[in-house]
Amino acid sequence: MNNGVQVRYFAAARAAAGVESAIFAPASLDSIISLACSTNPSLKHVLSQCSFLLDSVLVHDQSIFVNDGSVIDVLPRFAGG
Questions:
Q1: Which of 31, 35, 46, 68 could hold 16 in an S-S bridge, CB 3.0 to 4.6 Å?
Q2: What are the chain's domains?
Q3: Is-contact 28 17, C-beta < 8 A?
């Protein structure tokens, strides 16, 4: 039995979210992002510049459905090479 979708925030996304991670119900990635930002406008700005890994695979299509038990990593832009 799984317990939802875990969203893990890193670097600037963690600072904006104010938490290391959060749990959401299974939904499309864009729905999860919208829900995460619904009460946090500063997080919305940061997430608009982030990359997302779904179960360690880079996601290009945010309409993808995220299943129960999956992990989304939120990665802001990083400086350097």
A1: 46
A2: 5-75 (3.10.20.30)
A3: no
